[in-house]
Design goal:
This protein is an alpha+beta fold. The protein has 20 helices and 20 strands. The protein folds into four domains: 2-99; 112-254 and 263-292, Tumour Suppressor Smad4; 303-517; 541-596, no CATH class. It has helices spanning 13-27, 55-65, 81-86, 93-98, 131-137, 168-173, 198-205, 284-292, 303-316, 321-340, 343-352, 356-368, 371-398, 406-409, 416-434, 440-448, 452-463, 467-494, 503-539, 571-584, and strands at residues 2-6, 32-35, 48-52, 71-74, 101-109, 112-114, 118-121, 145-151, 154-160, 162-167, 188-193, 218-223, 225-229, 235-238, 241-244, 248-262, 274-276, 546-556, 559-568, 589-596. The strands form three sheets. Strands 1, 2, 3, 4, 5, 6, 8, 9, 13 and 16 form a ten-stranded mixed sheet that branches. The protein has a seven-stranded antiparallel sheet with strand order 15-14-7-10-11-12-17. Strands 18-19-20 form a three-stranded mixed sheet, with helices on one face. It starts with a strand and ends with a strand.
Length: 598
């Protein structure tokens, strides 16, 4: 027999007549029209039933009829759009009658039918009113709950922030990226979300996990029956309706006597269970950590990741013959290059310099608050500084040369821009160490550029007993160390290598380092802008038959000196130009070099 069940509040007599006509054309019989009632299923077996009603009412009717041998068609309407989407029912009823397959497997949550999905979580997390507001309200009070999962004979202990459950094929229809290759419709599917940071929780909350592979902190279990247990107070939103969790839930997909016409394609029986939970917390200590404390802002690196990186960084903090050999060669090369005013030689020294390794190690020691690593790194840095200063000082003292070259002058005016460069280099260094695909060579070149040359210039200043030169160059060297250590430590923190226990102390220490160096750099930056104004004003001065070239501007013993070169055919004209300059700029001290043009 054919029956057309309809909700008279939703359908007009004319539409009802049209649907009855289409059914007659397809099956050759006129359907018996009956007013739809949610719990009335007293029809004979093998009946073909067409239903035009609201989705929530249809759901209750299916629950009551699941033991009956019915063939069911859902007539598309505005009150059952979600159901149409789930079963892939075309909007054209005529097309639906001619193109369909039959589904017999349905999924239940504690005996309640799941059409779309069941969401299990704490009340604050599944609150649907204003997602952003609820997220921000609970952002620093997000904890996982303990979870026991039973799949056949397997018992799994883990933790979760949220669980989604449905039929495996329904997840595919709903567009979940890691179900797109599925073809089974006779298994339940449970997605366990266990983010280990607020950032990961944010991605989960706003559905930003779009990749086809399982992201970190997400597990998927596919089986006919999955049992979930938790001692926490949880809530369930099942197809938009709230239910109590009652500490135990059985997600079960079973074969019913119903044959539901759908648009599901290639639906095949499953062969075995699938359990993919590698990235979920399973260690008892981790489960306790994430369920007792609020989630950290950023993810914490795994023990394996930290162990590999820490081993490499701890070795780099040590002083060994290879390190000292490279350091000595790089210092000597840089010092010679500074005297030669040779940029290529200095660059060669930069590439060889190993000094960035203990600085990176120190930054890791700070974020982890590893006192032994910090002490060992500081020892290596101190020995390196002493060695660099000693060699460059000795070289400058023995060499009968007292002229500040252009390459030396470049390292004698540190500014806040130099600190910015050091911070960028520190970012490259930290990321290079943490990411084996990037490698350490990139970081080594980027960081060494700003370390050895200013250290050698400071040593040259000591050799010449020029303390202004020493302090300016050493300020640049120290600023580079601070910037690199601060930035690399920040990168390690962002990548999850920081100690959650000492994160506040490590943050205060890093900020203190930056504040200590910013003030003198700010003063030096003001001098830099002053020198630029002096360059600009003097460069505007024009003299007849005299060429003026500014070599450098610097401060010595509180006075500003300007080294200039005056070139002319007549030396008297050049000297007259020098006198005019001194009268025009009485606050400046000119060091004049005269050059005759032939």
């Amino acid at each position: 027999m054919l029956y057309l069940l309809y909700d008279s509040d939703l359908i007009t007599p004319q539409s009802l007549k049209s649907y009855a006509l289409l059914i007659r054309q397809k099956f050759g019989k006129v359907p018996i029209k009956k007013e739809f009632r949610k719990n009335f299923t007293d029809f004979e077996d093998e009946a073909i039933i067409f239903i035009y009603a609201k989705e929530s009412d249809i759901k209750r009717w299916i629950e009551a009829a699941r033991q009956k041998k019915f063939t069911i068609f859902f007539i598309p309407n505005d009150k059952s759009k979600n159901l149409q989407k789930i079963f892939k029912i075309p909007s054209s009823f005529e097309k639906y009658l001619n193109e369909h397959t039959f589904v017999s497997h349905l999924t239940f949550f504690n005996d309640t039918l799941i059409l779309n999905r069941a969401v299990i979580a704490k009340e604050s997390w599944i609150e649907s009113q204003n997602l952003l507001k609820s997220f921000m309200k609970n952002i620093f009070n997000i904890k996982l709950f303990k979870l026991n999962i039973s799949v056949n004979d397997k018992q799994i202990k883990s933790a979760a922030l949220m669980i989604e459950a449905s039929n495996e094929y329904v997840f595919k229809v709903m567009g979940y990226p890691f179900f797109q290759d599925t073809g089974s419709c006779d298994r339940s599917a449970v997605i366990v979300y266990a983010p280990t940071s607020i950032i990961e929780a944010f991605k989960l909350k706003f559905h930003l996990m779009k990749k086809p592979v399982l992201p970190k902190g997400v597990g998927v279990i596919k089986s006919k029956t999955v049992t979930l247990q938790s001692e926490d107070e949880l809530s369930v939103v099942l197809d938009g309706e709230k239910f109590p969790f009652e500490k135990r839930a059985v997600i079960k997909t079973q074969n019913t006597n119903l044959h539901i016409a759908s648009g599901w394609e290639g639906c095949q029986p499953s062969q075995k269970d699938s359990i993919r939970i590698d990235t979920l917390p399973k260690d008892e200590e981790l489960i306790e950590f994430y369920t007792k404390k609020s989630l950290p802002l950023l993810p914490i690196a795994s023990e394996e990741q930290f162990a590999a990186l820490f081993k490499k960084i701890r070795e780099n903090a040590k002083i060994n013959p290879v390190y000292m050999t490279l350091l000595i060669i790089s210092v000597l090369m840089a010092t010679i290059g500074l005297f030669q005013n040779s940029a290529p030689t200095i660059i060669g020294a930069m590439i060889l310099a190993p000094l960035m390794a203990p600085i990176i190690s120190f930054s890791m020691g700070v974020v982890r608050f590893e006192k032994s690593l910090m002490a060992r790194s500081l020892k290596t840095i101190s020995v390196s500084v002493f060695t660099g200063l000693s060699l460059s000082t000795m070289f400058a003292f023995l060499l009968p040369y007292r002229h500040v070259t252009e390459q030396m002058a470049l390292r004698m005016n540190p500014t806040l821009l130099d600190l910015a460069v050091a911070i960028l280099a520190g970012i490259a260094g930290g990321y290079g160490y943490a990411n084996s695909k990037v490698g350490e060579s990139l970081a080594g070149v980027a960081i060494a550029v700003a370390l050895v040359p200013p250290l050698c210039v400071a040593g040259i200043g000591l050799g010449w007993m020029d303390m202004d030169m020493f302090w300016q160059a050493f300020l640049l060297f120290f600023a580079n160390i601070v910037g690199i250590a601060f930035a690399a430590g920040t990168v390690f923190y962002l990548l999850g290598f920081a100690s959650s226990r000492y994160v506040a102390a490590a943050f205060i220490l890093k900020i203190s380092m930056i504040l200590v160096i910013i003030f003198p750099l700010y003063i030096s930056t003001q001098n830099f802008f002053l020198y630029e104004r002096i360059y600009d004003e003097i460069s505007r001065v024009k003299y007849h038959q005299v060429e003026l070239k500014i070599d450098s501007v610097y401060t010595k013993e509180g006075k500003i000196y300007v080294e200039i070169e005056l070139a002319a055919k007549d030396e008297a004209a050049a000297r007259k130009a020098a006198q005019t300059l001194k009268k025009r700029f009485p606050d400046l001290n000119f060091v004049v070099i005269y050059k005759k043009i032939v």
